[in-house]
Write a structure and sequence with these properties.
This protein is mainly alpha-helical. About 35% of the residues lie in helices and about 0% in strands. It is built from eight helices and no strands.
């Protein structure tokens, strides 16, 4: 595809990202802390850089949820949703497939934050996710159904074997519901989740496995999870000159430092 098409698609993706790309996590209150005696602190705050515990992140390499066939679909689809171009990293280069794999292998994939009990009538878009499938089950069923559709209708063994032009056409068919899938999978529901999760993996903090080397943040000029930005609150339209930093902090922030 031409450069203009790629740039337009990337701008669309960037424009759809919520402002809060760096989320907050809850802190645990340790036993006995509530009973500690009060202290009076004068002068500067007694804080030393690097003494806090670094937050945990994903670990390992390779896929733990996706099968080989599923990984081939995901890498091909993500590569078309956010293609490589001179503006910034593509979705595969940014490690989005790895992010998706780890999310589907965890609480999100299990649907811990969804109500998945029946009945399951077809809802309206305003009602949000309406399916008997957990996200992990939806991905698994949808990918198998898409590859079956490709084999039956497009003369290829799987989605990943199609030309990029045919992959784009099929993704568009999923998005608007023209492609009908077997196995009880709603194509529009799956495409909406895939696109949303791809955006999340592309722009999220690298601690979750995507946004490799903070490439997406560098592309849009987002400095990341700095302590605060209070001196920039009233300075509208100015580029914040801070280097990108994630939840884990700078490279020197390591356990025990």
């Amino acid at each position: 595809m031409g450069t203009k098409v790629n740039l337009d698609r990337r701008n669309f993706l960037i424009g759809g990202v919520a402002a809060g790309v760096a989320g907050a996590t809850a802190a645990a209150v340790h036993d006995g802390e509530l009973g500690a005696p009060p202290q009076t602190i004068r002068g500067s705050v007694p804080w030393k850089e690097g003494t806090a515990d670094a937050p945990p992140g994903v670990s390992g390499s390779g896929y733990v949820y996706f099968t080989t066939a599923e990984a081939a679909f995901i890498e091909a689809a993500v590569g078309r949703l956010i293609p490589d171009d001179p503006v910034g990293p593509g979705g595969v280069e940014a490690n989005v497939p790895f992010f998706l794999d780890r999310q589907l292998a965890g609480p999100f994939g299990r649907g811990d934050h969804y109500f998945l009990g029946g009945p399951w009538p077809k809802g309206t878009p305003e009602q949000g996710y309406q399916s008997r499938f957990s996200p992990a089950q939806l991905y698994r069923a949808a990918i198998a159904a898409i590859d079956q559709y490709v084999s039956a209708n497009l003369g290829a063994a799987a989605f990943s074997a199609l030309t990029t032009a045919d992959q784009d056409k099929l993704l568009k068919g999923l998005e608007n519901g023209d492609v009908k899938l077997d196995g009880g999978v709603d194509s529009k529901t799956f495409f909406a989740m895939l696109l949303q999760n791809t955006k999340e993996g592309y722009f999220s903090d690298p601690i979750y496995g995507g946004n490799k080397d903070m490439g997406a943040w560098k592309m849009i000029g987002f400095p990341g999870a700095h302590y605060n930005y209070k001196e920039w609150v009233s300075r509208h339209g100015e580029r914040v000159p801070y280097p990108q930093v994630g939840f884990k902090g700078r490279p020197g922030w390591t356990e025990g430092s």
